[in-house]
Structure to design on (148 residues):
């Protein structure tokens, strides 16, 4: 079988309540590029996108096959997206329809980061590097009473 891309070893696969709207949101919020999608009746059965060179897939929710965060009552996964400017990326995502969870702030681990929940229930940490630190330096700065 010929595939349109060389698949990476791991690709996130998101289940969403409205894949057509999700594609538009990810393009507007994160600059995603759609590689292709396939329909299954009036739903999207499979879609492949790229964000900053990273491959991910999504599909509409299909009972018995997958479940969206809305069906599950939340998500246990956060997607970490490295961006040029966390503040601007969060502002852009919120303008596209994301909900602000945590505004951007400088973190002890050397990043400026904040988080949003997209309209489909998936959570995204948007961050940029302020300084490169070793694990030992991060451990030294870590305050066990501080949440990330």
């Amino acid at each position: 079988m010929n595939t349109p891309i060389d698949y990476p070893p791991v690709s996130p696969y998101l289940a969403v309540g409205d894949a057509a709207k999700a594609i538009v949101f990810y393009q507007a919020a994160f600059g995603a590029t759609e590689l292709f999608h396939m329909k299954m009746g009036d739903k999207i059965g499979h879609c492949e996108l790229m964000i900053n060179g990273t491959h991910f897939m999504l599909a509409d929710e299909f009972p018995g096959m997958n479940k969206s965060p809305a069906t599950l009552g939340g998500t246990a996964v956060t997607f970490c997206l490295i961006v040029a400017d966390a503040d601007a990326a969060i502002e852009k995502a919120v303008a596209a329809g994301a909900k602000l969870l945590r505004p951007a702030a400088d973190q002890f681990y050397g990043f400026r980061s904040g988080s949003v929940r997209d309209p489909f229930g998936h959570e995204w940490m948007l961050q940029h590097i302020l300084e490169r630190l070793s694990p030992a330096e991060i451990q030294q700065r870590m305050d066990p009473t501080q949440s990330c």
Summary: Residues 71-141 form a domain with the 2,3-Dihydroxybiphenyl 1,2-Dioxygenase; domain 1 fold (CATH 3.10.180.10). The mean pLDDT is 93.
